[in-house]
Amino acid sequence: MEQPSCASKKFFGMNTEIECKLFGEHAKEAMQAIQLELHLLENLWSRYLPSSDIGKINTAAGKEFVTVAPETFALLSQAKSFSKLSEGVFNVMVGPLVDLWDYKHAVRPPTRSMVKKVLPLTDPDDLVLTADSSRVGLRKLGQSIDVGGIAKGCATDYCVGILDAYGISSAFINIGGNVVVRGTKPEGNPWKVGIRHPRKPDSMLGVLDACNTSIVTSGDYERFFIGPKGKRWHHILDSTTGYPVQSAFSSVTVVYGNSLVADALSTLLFMSGIETGLEILSRFPGAEAVFADSRLCVLITPNLVSKFHIAEPMELSVVKRKEKNEKHNKKKE
């Protein structure tokens, strides 16, 4: 049997490492289109580019509204939806906090007075969208948007659209940990997607068998620093306190057909805890999750039982949305 044409490439974009493996008659053309699309989206959404839509919105904060591209307006509309769903827990208005914590250079947390000063700038209701004119504005001087919790997922969905356009039926795309797989591997086997161990940098927590879905992980190991007293300060910030969220988890992986939703849900579930997280997950039929708690015990939703292969001996629990008096169904690996 003749093997399909393959295009495979690793490159840097959207401020992260990207890997693509495409199989099909038009794989090379699709690869070029994906690279171009990601470059265009980065130029729209990067908060570090003053000429981007996000850069312009941030610069104009408290002054004027900015007309943005349809892709940017759609992205921010989705961000507003997830903010409303989570009652403000998911919040792209954390830009001032992200700048304050400065994870690339920080060696100690900011002072309480510094945190208190920027908290009034993070109100999610201060992001204003006018649908009739595709204009976006921030109400106060000093406010800024950071779409890091949703942009890679949205970009991955645009890549899926390109796969459709070029008839690519087998593909693996990884945008900085946001993974989407199309179909199966060319030989017919499911794709194997590793979930990184949150405390062992070069090890896997487990492996998922996956076809036609997205797999996105949020965790406290992605960007962090160790403070003077040995405390880990991670990058997922709680805009109600100004500090890294005190999560019950080390990582949360969401498996879902839409990558933007999986991206937002992985962050939201990391911040919400198991009870609220499972309730939120139940609002998205077909969404599944792998939770690694602070003790590195692993919890998975039922439909992943046959698809998740734990990498080393540890406690594994199967969880679902619980009714009253319903208990976790535990098993040992």
From TrEMBL:
<feature type="binding site">
    <location>
        <position position="267"/>
    </location>
    <ligand>
        <name>Mg(2+)</name>
    </ligand>
</feature>
<dbReference type="GO" id="GO:0046872">
    <property type="term" value="F:metal ion binding"/>
</dbReference>
<keyword id="KW-0479">Metal-binding</keyword>
<feature type="binding site">
    <location>
        <position position="263"/>
    </location>
    <ligand>
        <name>Mg(2+)</name>
    </ligand>
</feature>
<keyword id="KW-0808">Transferase</keyword>
<dbReference type="GO" id="GO:0016740">
    <property type="term" value="F:transferase activity"/>
</dbReference>
<dbReference type="InterPro" id="IPR024932">
    <property type="entry name" value="ApbE"/>
</dbReference>
<protein>
    <recommendedName>
        <fullName>FAD:protein FMN transferase</fullName>
        <ecNumber>2.7.1.180</ecNumber>
    </recommendedName>
</protein>
<keyword id="KW-0274">FAD</keyword>
<comment type="similarity">
    <text>Belongs to the ApbE family.</text>
</comment>
<keyword id="KW-0285">Flavoprotein</keyword>
<dbReference type="InterPro" id="IPR003374">
    <property type="entry name" value="ApbE-like_sf"/>
</dbReference>
<feature type="binding site">
    <location>
        <position position="149"/>
    </location>
    <ligand>
        <name>Mg(2+)</name>
    </ligand>
</feature>
<keyword id="KW-0449">Lipoprotein</keyword>
<dbReference type="Pfam" id="PF02424">
    <property type="entry name" value="ApbE"/>
</dbReference>
<keyword id="KW-0460">Magnesium</keyword>
